[in-house]
Fold these 3 entries.
Entry 1:
Amino acid sequence: MRVKTKVLAIANQKGGVGKTTTAINLSASLSLASKKVLLIDLDPQGNATTGSGINKDSANPSVYQVLLGDSSIDTATMRSQEGGFDVVPANRHLAGGEIELVEIEDRELRLKKALCEVSTNYDYVIIDCPPALSLLTINGFTAANAVMITMQCEYYALEGLRDLVETIKRIRSSFNKKLQIEGLLRTMYDPRNSLTQQVSDDLEEHFGDKVYRTVIPRNIRLAEAPSFGLPAVSFDASSRGALAYLDLAREVMGHNS
Ligand code: ATP
Ligand code: MG
């Protein structure tokens, strides 16, 4: 049995801010550091599944059956061969599943309960949340020890953070007292953009050392890798994007040592 499993939900209700890219590449980078990792795809888009080299349409059972109690998490778990980590896949069935979830008992606790069976097999469980503060994301927050917020440094970014932080506070006072904000990750970072720099400075001022020192640059290799079903750290290990995620993994492991 492991001393302590870190369960990390990667979230932001804003779409397209690098959640899934981070979930895949952080999972692969931690695996390269010999950590045992489970990636849970909680998004009906199934991008974390596809980007890990798994055919989402043939994934059955998937996280949908796990949440509804129709499958154990163990049975639904697949392997990302190239990434070196395990995956609980998702696909479009999960969109309907969210509506079915509303009707059932302990609807916010389904993932947490399922995870109890297996989490001690892993050093890290990484949860890729959908772009909404929905029941799926709440299941992610209830199951997690901590939340990693990914964000692009643009004008409305800070405004969206307020709602996210409020939701985390609500979950802390209801389902998960110990939920922490693990950190804020700046993604798709372009230092030549002066607005980026300004938002980034504001972020550091508001959140202090909660902002990861590692910054993920805008890098085409990160965007190309998923179409090959590969994490960028496998697809092109020397690319700037891959190197940044390897740094992030070191920073995350540093927080937990
Ligand atoms: P959604 O909210 O839809 O789930 P997301 O927050 O998970 O989106 P991603 O899917 O990771 O965001 O990224 C959105 C798009 O931007 C994708 O096409 C991805 O390949 C690309 N992308 C992510 N990070 C980077 C980066 N650092 N540099 C360049 N492209 C990136
Ligand atoms: Mg995503």
Note: Residues 15-21, 43, 45, 47, 131, 187-188, 216, 218-219, 222-223, 226, 241 surround adenosine-5'-triphosphate (ligand 1) (CB under 6 Å).
Entry 2:
Amino acid sequence: MAIYKAPRGTHDIYGRIALGLEKLDEYARTVFKKHNFKEIKTPMFEDAALFTRSIGEATDIVEKEMYLFQDKKGRNLALRPEGTASLVRAYIEHRLDMEEPVGKFFYCGDMFRYERPQAGRYRQFLQMGAEYLGNPNPNADVEIILLAKEILSKLNITDVVIHINSLGCDKCRPVFRQKLVEYFSSIQDLCDDCKRRLEKNPLRLLDCKIDSRKFQNVPAMQQCLCQECNEHFNKVQQLLKTVDCSYVIDDKLVRGLDYYTRTVFEVRSSAVGSHDAICAGGRYDNLVKELGGQQIPSVGFALGSERVLLAAEKTNFFDNIKTNDIVFVAVADEFLFDKAFAFANDLLINKNNICSKLNLPEKITVEGPLYNKSLKAQFKLADKIGAKKVVILGNDELVKNQVVVKDMQTQQQELISL
Ligand code: HAM
């Protein structure tokens, strides 16, 4: 018989990681809602051209990593590699700009990239992201950075470095691009990817994992920023200082997606591979227009949930995840099984306030009764699953409308009338 395994680069999420993801989701939603971001859900697949147009033809994502397929009608579709393009498509399609002057949205969901799998890098992974549309002011850039930082700090991930850079705008980036072309043309033995990108997208060379060591004294974008972009970048830094948010300027930070203008940032943690960010984002002032909408300057970020949890392994986050106390319903006499089943149901719905009568908290997890098991076997199981209390239903007690509640920690038993 064939033995099936999860496809390479995917992973099953269960146990403590599933609990961790649930908690991260809860924390992130609380932070997003506090900042008045509203949830939006978009499809997991889109017209492939949407991503080519927005992320950029000469990016790794579009060139090598997209999961492309045709449906039965021959439409060219792609599993989404990220959330921003889909969100902007939905924003334009539903004229969401008409509803509110600024649009603040958040999303959570699976993304797909055909990357080389390693720790914290998957082919199907989870992102939570926020997009702030319609605010050109540097305060929006800083709010987005702080939002990311606030979510991480809820998981006690504070050992992070925030890298920031400015990629300028349509006015000043061509100057930088030209300087880069001149610089890179003088470097010998560029790798094949870099040679190709030198013509199509020279900024991407700054991100090359193979050649970057050869790039000494490479020109920096900041030397080429126009006055407006320079002022914007300075203001971002000034606001970050005002709110005591430390950062480093990283003039090699170019990001793997082409839609960015001005501010870009990445949050890195030593707990995850040195170059892999746990969350990242930036400003994209032209994307809405490029995809057919108005000129709506925007900024956003996304965190990789698996990578955030990897960083959280170094904190006390997992130890502090609280789950409901488990109450195990045990049946002493087999013929009482149906009664025990009904009793467990009463506990689940807290019928007639039964939990307080039994000195149990209102939020509990109920396990049992288990069919055809000796009382000893039931106790063994209750112990194994970490039950706090076992409620034992026996005939002698039930005729007097009583049950026995055993505290598994102290081993003390109490007879309680219902
Ligand atoms: P990104 O940097 O491509 O940006 O991805 C954001 C985050 O997703 C990364 O920092 C990382 O934590 C996680 N991530 C990316 N690829 C993988 C992978 N293969 N496995 C696990 N985690 C991964 C974006 O996607 C932009 N849409 C962010 C953005 C929002 N910019 C503006 N608005």
Note: The chain has a mean pLDDT of 94.
Entry 3:
Amino acid sequence: MTAIPRFAATADGAPTPAMLETWDRDGVLVIENAVPAAACDALIERSRAIVEAWDPAEGAAVFSTTAPRHAADRWFRESGDKVRVFLKAGAVDAGGRPSSPRLDAVNKLGHAMHDLDPVFERVSRRPQLAALARGLGLADPLLVQSMVIWKPPAVGGEVTCHQDATFLVTEPESAVGFWLALEDADAGNGCLFAIPGGHRGPLRQLFHEVDGALVTETLDPTPFDVAAAVPLPAPKGTLVVLHGRLPHGSAPNTSNRSRMAYTLHAVDGAARWHPGNWLRRPPGMPFRGFGPGG
Ligand code: FE2
């Protein structure tokens, strides 16, 4: 099993030569203490408040990567410029409302907290994160999507092995994922796993709009080498950076410990944003970079 190096955060966030070497070889960086615990707590608190304030009558959607029924759901399709609650499969009644305590029924929040919520914006636009994104080669980093992945105890769902570039299509490919552990994540409560070096393999699928419908198109049927996957345990405050083509996922949380994470995805503004992307922004709300207002 390939050991994934772990790094301490640099003061200004910029990657060191050793980090860049790992990034090129493995397609993943694990950076401990990248975000202070207090900032993680603030995101958890804010996430819970969003869910508590949410009125299920506004609409709800079950989000599951194992049964992608969400594809046709407007709740999902129209969430690129909003803050919306997505419920997990099995935690809703026939009317689509939470059937258990709502904080346990959530799969995720998405997809524009980084632009619409001041608490999320502050963490998302940390100067250290900007320096990291630029150092990894994004000439004009644009923050396109944010999610809080809930993973409650005992019922937190799995995320099947995938490549983020499947869902965030640019030409050339440029997606980079930033995954922040808001709570300790380990093999017991469904931490990330990834296939080191798998970013040098082909992009397997494209999830995009064709003739008005969201479809998953297979580009290359080569299966992921899941036997080569390694767990990526991440204590609270650890940032895991994922190359857009790196196969990764996470197991279900069957423990009695919560495992919340915040993910942020960036693409390069120098690349062409494919018009068939599921993620849409209205003309008045374009993707923004790390700086305030631009
Ligand atoms: Fe992902």
Note: The radius of gyration is 18 Å.
